[in-house]
Structures are given as structure tokens and as C-alpha cells.
């Protein structure tokens, strides 16, 4: 899968560090989800998403973060932490009420004082399998449904978007069914 912006990863004692460089979007959020799901399945309790070099986030990316935070929280009290979001990204997360699901710049994180060493040892993450158009449509819809459930005001904000995404997914599913041999 080609992403507009790289996603870097490092596994450390007590946490996994994920760094998004450039814009966090529907293009690289499937990779973010793959990494998060893989680490959660491996028993990780703390994911740190480093947004220092993230120039902005679309709603799909933020919905992916919210989904990861929810899955971690259900995993024996795990937590998703955001490192160095900058004012714009912090505001975006707070505007959608996601600061109640995840920790933004936690005051005493496990990784305190290690950020430079951590960042210098990260590796570029690669997708196990590139998502198909149908899988990408499912991912975008799921991310928006998670956002709508994350905070009560979000259900109204994303209602029309979700309806449109459901219609789009239905069309793509029908097209895929028509193309596949019986």
C-alpha cells in the first residue's frame, strides 16, 4: 500500500510508539489500524501515537485513533497516548471529544525523557496487505461510526457523512458481487 505520508513504529518495554509524518488521513489510517490491532493482539497495553510531524488529521484518521483507544481500554485498562500533537491537532481531537478516550501529552508518561532516543530508533511500517477499495470503504465508514459514538455531539456532526458512506459501501459491494464469478 502506498501512503502519502510514512508511518514509523518502534516496540519498547511497556509501550509501542507509532509516528505519523505528514498528514494523518484515510490513506495511512488502515496501516495505523493494522499496527494497533497487531500490537493489541500481542498484549500491548500502551500505544503512543507521535504527532509531532503530523501536519493535520482527517476524520477517518481520528476515528481510527478513537477505535484503537476503545479497543485498548477494553483490554485490561490499556491506554492510547498522544505525544506532541501541536495546537492544531490537539484542538481537532478535543473538538470531537476524543480527549476523554485517550491521553494527550500525559504529564508523567512511561516514555518521559526518552523521546529523542525513541524517535531515532523507529522503522518504517509496511502494510501486511494493501486494502481493496471495498475494504477501504468499510474502514472509512467504521472510523466515522466510531467518531459518532465517541461523543454525543458527534452523532449529529457525522450523521449525513455516515449515510453517504453507507450508500457508497452498498454500491461498491453490489459492484464487487456483479464482477465476481458465481
Please, could you describe this protein's structure?
By secondary structure, the protein is an alpha/beta fold. The chain has a domain at 7-128: STAS domain (Transcription Regulator spoIIAA). The protein contains 6 helices and 8 strands; from the N terminus they run βββαββαβαβαβαα. The strands form 2 sheets. It has a 6-stranded mixed β-sheet. Strands 3-5 form a two-stranded parallel ribbon. β1 and β2 (15-20) form a beta hairpin. α2 packs across α5 (133-150). The longest helix has 28 residues, at 152-179. It starts with 6 loop residues before the first strand and ends with a helix. The relative contact order is 0.16.
Strand order of the largest sheet: 7-6-4-2-1-8
SS elements, strand count: 8
Mean pLDDT score, rounded?
A: 92
Q: Which CATH class of the domain at 7-128? A: Alpha Beta
**Largest sheet entry:** 6 strands, mixed
The geometry reads as globular
Please identify which CATH superfamily of the domain at 7-128 we are dealing with.
STAS domain
Class of secondary structure makeup: alpha/beta
Any idea of the CATH topology of the domain at 7-128?
Answer: Transcription Regulator spoIIAA
Percent of residues in helices: 40-55%
Q: Approximately what portion of the residues adopt beta-strand conformation? A: 15-25%
Succession of helices and strands: EEEHEEHEHEHEHH
Amino acid at each position: 500500500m502506498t501512503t502519502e505520508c510514512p508511518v514509523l513504529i518502534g516496540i519498547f518495554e511497556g509501550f509501542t510508539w507509532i509516528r505519523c509524518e505528514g498528514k494523518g488521513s484515510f490513506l495511512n489510517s488502515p496501516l495505523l489500524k493494522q499496527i494497533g490491532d497487531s500490537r493489541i493482539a500481542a498484549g500491548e497495553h500502551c500505544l503512543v501515537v507521535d504527532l509531532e510531524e503530523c501536519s493535520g488529521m482527517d476524520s477517518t484518521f481520528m476515528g481510527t485513533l478513537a477505535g484503537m483507544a476503545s479497543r485498548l481500554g477494553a483490554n485490561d485498562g490499556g491506554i492510547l497516548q498522544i505525544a506532541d500533537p501541536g495546537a492544531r491537532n490537539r484542538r481537532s481531537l478535543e473538538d470531537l471529544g476524543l480527549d476523554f478516550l485517550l491521553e494527550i501529552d500525559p504529564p508523567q508518561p512511561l516514555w518521559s525523557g526518552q523521546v529523542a532516543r525513541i524517535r531515532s530508533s523507529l522503522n518504517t511500517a509496511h502494510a501486511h496487505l494493501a486494502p481493496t477499495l471495498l475494504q477501504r470503504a468499510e474502514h472509512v465508514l467504521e472510523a466515522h461510526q466510531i467518531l459518532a459514538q465517541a461523543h454525543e455531539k458527534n452523532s449529529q456532526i457525522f450523521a449525513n457523512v455516515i449515510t453517504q458512506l453507507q450508500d457508497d459501501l452498498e454500491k461498491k459491494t453490489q459492484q464487487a458481487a456483479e464482477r465476481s464469478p458465481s
